[in-house]
Amino acid sequence: MLTGDQYKESLRDGRQTFFEGEKVDDLVGHTLLGQTVETTAAGYDRFYDPAPDATSPLMTVPSSADDLREMIPLLHEAGMMAHVTYTSIQTLKTVAGRMNDVKPDYIERMDAFIAEAQIGDVRITQCITDAKGNRSQPPAKQDDLDSYVRVVDRQRDGVVIRGAKLHITGASFGHELLTIPTKAMKAGEEDWSIGCAVPVNAEGVRIINTTYAPRHEDTRSFPVSGTHHYPEGFVIFDDVFVPHERVFLDGETAFAAVFAHSLGLWERLGGLSAFVEEADQLVGLAQLVAEANGTAGIAHVKEKISEMIIHATLIRATLEAAIENCNVGPEGAAFPNELFTNAGKFHAAANYNHIVRHLHDIAGGAVLTTPSPADFENEEVGDLARKYMSTGPDVDGEYRARLMHTIRDLTADSYGGWKFVTNIQAGGGLYAQRIVTRRHYDLDGAKLKALQIAGLAENDAH
After folding, report:
1. For 308-336, what is each residue's pLDDT tens digit?
2. In whole angstroms, what is the distance from residue 150 CA to residue 147 CA?
3. Domains of the chain: which residue ranges?
4. HpaB/PvcC/4-BUDH N-terminal domain: from which residue to which, for each copy (predicted)?
5. Alpha carbon distance 398, 376 (integer Å)
6. pTM for the model
């Protein structure tokens, strides 16, 4: 296993990464991006085991509902880079189970890659979303055929790929890029049916970073994003060679969707578990700020918080149902129930804005206008700011200000904006979750029950 310092050193491998128009030669020492390195390194140290044959518990393949359940708090504690690595590994195990014996050579390669990653304690980011070009046209009809990552050359010992993958969280901070099709492919789209693992420092890989991290020198007004932020990567593959042993799909269009759907399942489980955690946080903030404002006993405030509690409880129930009703594939790996995972993720994402609206309504305009921590330290206005932010002898003005800063950071500033978009788009949009939910719901069983209650025979249905 790697220590935090060893992880930092592993990033000095010649990777080509860029930020705001400049090439970043030293991620570790970068003023802004280096904070993400430190957060990830702390996760390494937290789970480090010096035993020679130790492997990270964060890279374990679950085989039961209990295993799935136990991983969730570990991943939340370890951070985003551990989460995307776990998701990448589980995606490959799910794909292997669904391909079963059809492509044993691919399964052997996937298993070998997973074992290598576990031994090396590396971090893997999953690259799925292509540039896509004109969304109304399939890959082979794009004006620029590189709009979807494709194979441009097949050689004796590997393939050469070209294209770009977008919205890749933490791409510059891992070691491997799990690159897979973004959707189902059909005949004539063999070159775009490519799945493989590419080292971040491979020749031809370039990553452009964007981040919601606050640019302020004093980040105390950003209690969440000031210390925990993970840049998004715009990953460019400019004629990158991939050896055969790292290729998991090449030209078999029938299996492109298997990769996309398998990743979608694990992305949505991760998204659902994050929603569950955050829903409790938002309920807690709503109750605390209502108490600080002196409005906790008002009927409409209590009603709004009750709605938030019901929302938090329902999505927690879908998470538990997804885990408890998990399936175990032929490879022995457990994966969450598709119906409950997708229905839960949809419900959480579709109702997030409503829940945040309640929080903002309860908190009030001070979410945006509360003075900064530095203002409270100012000799001229600090005491006055504290005085007027206070709502009584039991509520210190600075305490109430910190609640407001937290609500703003989570829901109404750069990080909050990132979350509003990500909640909808991560793991595929709401429409994709509707499709998968409908596909796994027992619609025929529901029709039969309707016929029975109507006193009709099954063969009466039209």
Report:
1. 999 999 999 999 999 999 999 888 899 99
2. 9
3. 258-447
4. 3-249
5. 7
6. 0.92
